[in-house]
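G., the chain you wanted modeled:
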Amino acid sequence: MRSAGALHRLLDVLPAFDGDSRVVTRFTLVPGSRFDVDALAALERSGARTLPWEEALRGEHDLLLAASPKGELWQLSGPRALLPHGAGFNKTIADDGSAGVPSGLDTHYLLSDGKPWAALHALAHEEQVSRLACGSADAAQRAAVVGDPTLDRLLVSVSRRDDFRDALATGPRRLVVVTSTWGPESLFARRPELPAELCESLPYDSFQCALVLHPNGHSETGRFDLSRQLAPALAAGLVLAHPYEEWAALLVAADAVVTDHGSTALYAAALGRPVVAAYDGGNELIPDSPMARLLAASPRLSTPSELPGVLSAARAVDTREPVALAFAHRGQALARLRHHLYRLIGLAPPTGPVRAQPLPRPTTVPRRPSAFAVRAEVSGGRIVVERFPVHTREHVHHVAAEHSVAEQREVQSAAVLWRRAADAAVRPRSSTWTADGWTAHALAEAPLCRTAVAVLTTRRCLLRHRTAGLLSLRLEPHRAGGRVSYADPVAVASAVHAWLGRGPAPTLPASLLCDTGPVTVRVHLTPVDTDDLNYEL
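Predicted structure as tokens:
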């Protein structure tokens, strides 16, 4: 292996040997790549055994498995099998091998002394064999179409989509995943501000945004600098996916993908996810490749504010043709690979079935913003609310901030302050407020605050308004299509605040409809409940 991306593909393939004690696995790092640091760290986390390159050169091996043709692999002794480490060969890399040749198919790397050094090219589709033959007919003779083991992992994980979305706290929102390859023409290199712009321009209660970077992007920049560069977007709730497995789980969970010319979007299209193009052109995309065809068919995103309309257009696009050119033998990759790999080893394969492993649950927990700029429209007993990052100030009805969590300037300027009841098992407090005591304290402490809200549960709040006084709120769930969804009670409280600001003190009990985007809920306002007053925060 040379990089984290190559390692990840190998890890997806190695279950072909599961259950066989005759096979012993060792990893070695092929020298020469500037992206090798994360590969070593990932290996250390996995507990895999490694072999120094010099020692690997001296040994005899029964099988050599690689997911990149670069480096002096031909010096290793033993039958060699080569796999792509992405969804085909859609990109050329400047100043690397032969100009204009797809990365991964360059005979500069595939041949040694004019002859192929790999005994097997395990490819995902016959189209890839044809491209390989353009450079070396001899290498194409050693090719076998086995399918794509990474795609198979995504496919067997589709049934876990709801679980993945629960882990990401997506709820009824639409999850938009931005995918970027690496290099000078990548989306993240050309438009690094796009994730933050999407978070700023899309209503928080309607959209969730995530970013999937190529493993080389992670290796080149590092998690620390990525977190620093993406700080505003992360604070607004952006999910930055880990480069192994979690990126794929996000594609399963996604509602749509915004992409450059990196082949990750082909996996999303294979899952039936709408694809939006954000590639500004250049010299890297291989003409007429599956990825080029996918981008040609997909609507283009010019500015972040266009996304809702562009998503509607993307849902109407049929992407089956480019997907069919990228992936063959769905669900069969490991079984087909097992046959060919054991043939190279010279052993009979195990008799039991081999299956792709489902993806694990995402572990990245997105931040929940501590302050919002709130737009509100009141029409009788119906209030439409949209919430954005707090620095979005255009056409804002009010600012809402989480007391003791948001920045002091946001707390001081907020018309609505909220505090959530603590989960004693998660964040115990040595002392606490009652809902009655805290709401009174918040209004006394913040002169500009008009409404203080104690969020007791997902369906229950105590609200104290400067003129309307104390109210208890009870939220009904949203039911549609056999599914039950809940609005964020903080968003509902902002809706009630906007309604209370329109006129005299309300006659109670009252009932309002609160539209927060994908969820419309009914909230009941009643005279204060004694249990709510004494609820411990």
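The chain is about 35% helix and 20% strand.

Shout if anything looks off.
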